[in-house]
Hints:
The chain contains 3 helices and 9 strands, in the order ββββαβααββββ.
Amino acid sequence: MGMNEKAEKRQANMRSCLQPMPKVLVSCRGLDGENNVLAVGYCANCSYDPPMVMVGIVPTRYSYKMIKESGVFVVNLVETDYKDAFDYLGSHSKRDEDKLAKMNIKLAEGKKVKAPILIDCPVNIECSVVDSIVTGSHELFIGKIEHVHAEARIVDKDGNVEYSKVNFL
């Protein structure tokens, strides 16, 4: 195709049209101490000074109240070998069963926030909620990054995560 030639365009579906969407698992803990994990597609960096990320959660989700009340969450980046767990956690509610026990999800305590990290994920981003905004179907929680855990194999000598070494799902 030459510079001035244009491919034919047509109206496309507007729903979640920004692709590819990240595949992350958000872990959280209710005020009663109950842990949960949910798959989240609406997730992005939204500030580097201070470092912040946002996650979008549908208010009917079981985890929504936990994050709203506790004011913390952890974003866990997922590799291909965690696909079965990701798919299961994303398609089942803890409202109905103990999906964490069923999938043998290994948790550890966060260093800075009162929420669990997923040990088997290569990067865990601990966040405290600084703001939220309802955008329609989702509420976007803006999280100030409090601590980042990363497997030693993917961290360079300056402490930077080498994302090219992560086999993302």
